[in-house]
Amino acid sequence: MAMTIAVSKEAKHYKSEITPDWCPGCGDYGVLTVLQRACAELNIPNHEILLVSGIGCSSNIPGFFKSYGVHSLHGRALPVATGAKLANHSMTVIAAGGDGDGYGIGQGHFIHAMRRNIDLTYIVMNNEIYGLTTGQTSPTSETNMKTKSTPFGNLEGQLNPLALAIAAGCGFVARGFSGDINHLKTLYMEAIKYPGFALVDVFSPCVTFNKQNTFGWFKERVYKLEDVNHDASQLHSAMEKTLEWGAKIPIGIFYKNPNPRVSLDRLDSTLSGKPLAYQSIGVSKEIRKKLIEEYV
Amino acid sequence: MKNELTIGIGGAAGDGVASAGNTLAQSMARLGLYVYAYNSYQSVIRGGHSYLRLRISAQKPLNHGNQINGLVALNQDTLNRHLPELLAGGICIYNNDKLKPEKAPPGVQLCPLPIYELAGSTALPVMQNTVAIGALIQLMGLEFQALESVFQNVFAKKPQVVAINVSAAKAGFDYALKHFKPFSEKLYKTNNRLALVTGNELLGMGAAVAGCKFYVAYPMSPASGVLHWMAPHAKELGICVRQVEDEISVINMAIGAAHMGVRSICATSGGGFALMTEALGMAGIIETPVVAINVMRGGPSTGLPTKTEQADLNQAIGASQGDYPRIIMAPISISDCFVSVQEAFNFAEQFQCPVIILSELLLSEGNETVNVEFLEQEIKIERGELITPENSTMGKTYLRYLDTPSGVSPRAIPGTPDHLYVSATDEHDEDGVIISDVYTDPVIRKKMADKRARKMQGILQKISKPSLEGSNEAEVTIIGWGSTWGVIKEAAEQLTQEGIKTNHLHFKYLVPFHVKEVLDILKKSKKTVIVEMNQSGQFARHLSAETGFRAHAHIRKYDGEPYEPKHIINGIKQILSQGKEIVEVLSTEPGWRTPHPPGPGVFTQAARIN
Ligand SMILES: Cc1ncc(C[n+]2csc(CCOP(=O)(O)OP(=O)(O)O)c2C)c(N)n1
Ligand code: SF4
Ligand SMILES: [Mg+2]
After folding, report:
1. Which residues make up the CATH 3.40.50.970 domain(s) of chain B?
2. Does the interface ipTM go beyond 0.90?
3. CB of A58 closer than 6 A to ligand 1?
4. What whole-number distance in Å separates Cα of residue A88 and Cα of residue A175?
């Protein structure tokens, strides 16, 4: 992709030339549009964004978004994004992918990324199904749900990624709904601005393979935490809210640490100056001498 | 003997074998004497038999030799096992207050030290090591000063400790002068300036001087030494060093950092490398320069965590699905680790592909003296075609995966204005747009696969061709790869001296392969023998896959212990005299063996270091 515009203020400036190939009506369209709007409103230059994804329908998102991007391996968006952020901490690094990608094959990285607390924003397009592989069960599929791989119903329990995030030390934990675009935009902007690891889990329905958790299903159930005066600075009440599931399901900011832990990219003294990527490389004669001297 | 002495130091793990060995080796290095040390230890912190062999000479020894001239026994077990190995003229030093030798072989001098008398009855048990090393230095005919300066260096912050050690060592030194006969073989100091280093330390130091800025690891023996070098040097050198959750994360982070334009590297052993393989293919298709080190240990699976083997060649060649350009190199000596890692970074960046370094436990944890001048030599940093915010020209159409004659496309690092692209692990076109799902296009697919594959030709021109060492006219050609260079070289020379003219063809670069040049050499060879450290002949198969050439015979060892020159010499003789096709070598000396199952107490404080 050639030419970018130096200062972008409109969502269209974050649209790539490629038309998304998601099924018509897929929740991921909303996720993409909102991300473009959020970046426009935050006025982040395109070349200072790195969007890293894994593999899945949702993980195709970097191709449709105008910035630098890595469309990496299934489950590995977070380690790739972490390495990238440490190498160039001046960039806004956003990781994105599906529920299978982040909570299934990538769950180990998910927990440790939150514990590690690098300044990344992680968007999970949670459709409670494996879309790209044509509809198998996911860790976030509901118990008893029938899918291609569980034709008699899912025997396993449903993962609660938000509770897991709070337990793992994530300082910003939010959930949005692709059917409520303006609300989602605020979540993204808050997440990007948060100076540490920020999780935004998004209900992003798969209209083709998940006939249970549809747009209508979510619309009936979701309510906004801000409408019930939830205090996102309180860890315990945040945890309690993450446990709500059923007739009513909360969306919004569950937890935002009022005293954020200093993120790793700010703690590591080697990253205090110019980004590693922009430093000249090699060592001086004196330093080389000193290194050798240790063994003489 | 040619002005060299080989000393064995043995004890239970926890007796301080390694530190006694280090003190001795450092003293030798300060005297300008070369050392090659091999440590045969068990995977326990305490207990087990730990045995160190140091070969010391004014000419650089290339392996740990065939037998010992001197023995320092720190426990009864060592005395029982190794005393019989000493040849006439040999010397055995031990603590007379605690240990009782069986009968010494003829011509071997027993040197009992009254440790309580010399170090004081309240001294710590490890002081026996200090007294013994003092005595040993005397019997080797060397100056005490070098030993004293080592203590001053090691305990720089604790003057009392220096004093205690110096006086104990001096007591041993003086006692030996009065009571024992020195080695008939004398060592003399030289003016060589020598550094005593392990392969792991050189991998770390080599990466640092090559401009590495990112090191990420998950601990695994015998690769952890690289992490242990990097971590304390991180701040000073500005290298971001991270320990993360697993090797999958390790390699993906390394690639993430490399993608941003940072020289990044990671090291592991076979099991960790297995976890990294999918991502190596990613580096192949998104064309990210990354260096992955596999310090091989005995396999399969957990295998032999503290023993050496060359059995991950198949794994490296087969790492990850699909075809993609890669470089596989195996350092041929401890000092070559320093050069290899610098070359690896240059190749990775020039060709934008993963480089796999197959090091080996033998190199990584063994100590070797290296000339300081060698380490001071600068290898030019070559980054290939890199577009950065500083040098970029705006406004032109940029294609990240531009199809070029060399297959290498100029690489803009993210953050550079006006060069946006997405790197995708799906097959993509020159612009990085994926063609896999909806727009599948056979023509573009082939073009992009060919573009990447073309890099291998460029790489082949950059890496040096294997060449014969020794006479062109030889009866036997020994073929080896990686760590066995030094031991094969010595064996070939020895065989030639004995009248069996032998030369040596050694491989450092395994992929890509100089097919024509290698065939030209091998076609002229009379009897070809492949020496490798694995059971199935992984290199033999690789050679025949690349060239169609099948060697006449094979020498293999996979018992965990490294080759000694005598193993190869005997193997060649058996092949020549008995027409054997495969000689399997086994180290049966008691020194290399631990009674099994272990006796009581051995594992009581055991801490695994897998
Ligand atoms: C190592 C590996 N295993 C399996 C796959 C196949 N695979 C691709 S995407 C996917 C799951 C996708 O589900 P999710 O991450 O939820 O994304 P969605 O398509 O639902 O957006 C799987 C199993 C793969 N690409 N790599
Ligand atoms: S299969 Fe589902 S997740 Fe994938 S694009 Fe279609 S609707 Fe979206
Ligand atoms: Mg999904």
Report:
1. 197-376
2. yes
3. yes
4. 28
